[in-house]
């Protein structure tokens, strides 16, 4: 479904990704792990069209999507949940979802149902300014917003970063709920979570893929994952 | 003192009309648009040209001024600003300042360099508790308040407004939701240009209309927008009236320093609340 083929990405003269390739099958969850500065966020931003690779290609559903802008990729079913938990803080939670519904052409009531399905408690916050939500609630709102329309591929950047254990459990529950329903590339440093959910793990080190783990026994072994970093 | 307050409110109203577009364009497009106040100048000159050449009354002259200046604003956005999205602020400084200088020279070429007076279109006064105020100035203040509430309604209740507000918060987030922000930026730009032109039209009977009137007010707009918060429309409204009052009241006791205080206030606000990088 998604193929990243030998991409190099740079910020100015500083090359961040070197010949990175990965492959994701329909309905699977691929986790990208690596230390800070390994290029994980850069990889997601490049897939989403926010950065253009210097070389290499990205294919989605067999079509070349290299360099296509995020506006077009959204309508092909690709959703990006950023690391910074940046919701539209001046708008209400309902309006945040309304914008996604407007863009995808889905009725608002249906869009709200999708968000409430993954997190029913959001009902209490619909009329609250999204900027007033906690970090975890913002993260959940962003994942919910990504579910609006017809998402096929979810790109999620460090969904549990900086969150309390109880919220991490909630996010893990939501990701488990989504597993099998759509495909996802998730950047995550929480190795126990990775071992629970991943179908494949790609290890990035200094911008290069150093290891790909497919075997369930390897993925479940967090100490092996730790070593791979 | 009461008259100084009234003058301050008038200055604040005009500052708001001009600055709100400035704030909008920076907030959404991250472009500091030096060319913004050329539409303010254009609005005032087109008003005068319409009244004198076409013989139309003030209201219709003002409508022509706002409409043509908004069109000019669209041209500036379409052919200059749109090429600068995502570029370094240095380029936007240079390009928009160049547009501003070209605009000033076109105004000089078309209408000459000498100031042009415009008479008070209402020519009436109102007596409030023994204080006599020109009705026109009250109308200008009222219009600025109506524009503020109209803009609030537009931003809060329409989808276009909500998308502009969302883009003010997180432009990249809007793009990642499949929404091409450029057309909304164009709209925000044209709206800002139209409001600046309205400011020029309304201020024409109060001040002298001359080719450099835009460069004079541009610095005050900077002070307003930085004090109110870049992209913060409510902050821009409050800062406009606060600085307008400060300018007017200082002018009563220390005329030479009337505008300096606006920049001192801006510096104080920036010290307390630095701009996020």
TrEMBL record, chain A:
Superkingdom of source: Bacteria
Keywords: Amino-acid transport, ATP-binding, Nucleotide-binding, Transport
Listed GO MF terms: ATP binding; ATP hydrolysis activity; branched-chain amino acid transmembrane transporter activity
SMART domains in UniProt: AAA (SM00382)
InterPro entries linked to this entry: AAA+_ATPase, ABC_transporter-like_ATP-bd, BCAA_Transport_ATP-bd_LivF, P-loop_NTPase
CDD domains: ABC_TM1139_LivF_branched
Gene3D superfamilies: P-loop containing nucleotide triphosphate hydrolases
One GO term of the biological process aspect: L-amino acid transport
Residues in ABC transporter domain copies: 2-229
Family, as annotated: Belongs to the ABC transporter superfamily.
Protein name: ABC transporter ATP-binding protein
Protein's organism: Candidatus Caldatribacterium californiense
């Amino acid at each position: 479904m998604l193929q990243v083929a030998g991409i190099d990405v740079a910020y100015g003269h500083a090359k961040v990704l070197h010949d990175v390739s990965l492959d994701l099958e329909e309905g699977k969850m691929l986790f990208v792990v690596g230390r800070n500065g390994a290029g994980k966020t850069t990889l997601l931003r490049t897939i989403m069209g926010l950065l253009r690779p210097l070389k290499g290609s990205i294919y989605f559903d067999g079509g070349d999507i290299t360099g296509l802008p995020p506006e077009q990729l959204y309508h092909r079913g690709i959703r990006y949940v950023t690391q910074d938990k940046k919701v539209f803080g001046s708008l209400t939670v309902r309006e945040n979802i309304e914008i996604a519904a407007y863009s995808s052409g889905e009725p608002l009531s249906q869009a709200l149902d999708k968000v409430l399905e993954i997190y029913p408690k959001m009902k209490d916050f619909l009329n609250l300014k999204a900027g007033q939500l906690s970090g975890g609630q913002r993260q959940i709102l962003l994942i919910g917003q990504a579910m609006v329309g017809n998402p096929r591929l979810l790109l999620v950047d460090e969904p549990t970063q900086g969150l309390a254990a109880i919220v991490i459990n909630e996010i893990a529950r939501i990701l488990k709920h989504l597993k099998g329903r759509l495909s996802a590339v998730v950047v995550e440093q929480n190795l126990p979570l990775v071992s629970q959910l991943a179908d494949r793990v790609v290890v990035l080190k200094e911008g290069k893929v150093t290891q790909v783990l497919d075997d369930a026994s390897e993925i479940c072994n967090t100490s092996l994952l730790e070593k791979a970093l | 003192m009461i008259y100084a307050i009234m003058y301050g409110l008038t200055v604040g109203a005009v500052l708001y009309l001009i600055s709100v577009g400035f704030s909008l364009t920076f907030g959404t497009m991250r472009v500091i648009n030096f060319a913004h106040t050329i539409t303010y100048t254009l609005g005032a000159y087109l008003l005068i040209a319409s009244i004198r050449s076409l013989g139309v009354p003030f209201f219709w002259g003002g409508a022509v001024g706002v409409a043509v200046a908004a069109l000019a604003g669209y041209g500036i956005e379409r052919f200059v600003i749109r090429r600068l999205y995502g570029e370094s602020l240095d380029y936007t400084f240079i390009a928009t300042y160049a547009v501003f200088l070209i605009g000033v020279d076109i105004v000089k070429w078309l209408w000459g360099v000498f100031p042009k007076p415009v008479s008070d279109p209402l020519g009436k006064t109102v007596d409030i508790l023994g204080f006599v105020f020109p009705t026109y100035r009250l109308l200008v203040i009222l219009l600025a308040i109506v524009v503020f509430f109209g803009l609030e309604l537009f931003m809060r209740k329409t989808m276009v407004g909500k998308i502009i507000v969302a883009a003010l918060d997180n432009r990249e987030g809007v793009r990642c939701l499949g929404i091409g922000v450029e057309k909304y930026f164009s709209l925000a730009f044209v709206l800002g240009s139209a409001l600046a032109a309205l400011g020029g039209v309304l201020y024409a009977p109060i001040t002298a209309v001359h080719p450099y009137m835009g460069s004079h007010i541009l610095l005050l707009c900077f002070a307003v927008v930085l004090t109110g918060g870049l992209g913060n429309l409510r902050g821009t409204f409050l800062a406009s009236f606060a600085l307008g009052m400060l300018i007017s009241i200082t002018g009563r006791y220390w005329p030479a320093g009337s505008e300096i205080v606006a920049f001192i206030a801006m510096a104080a606000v920036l010290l307390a609340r630095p701009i996020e990088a």
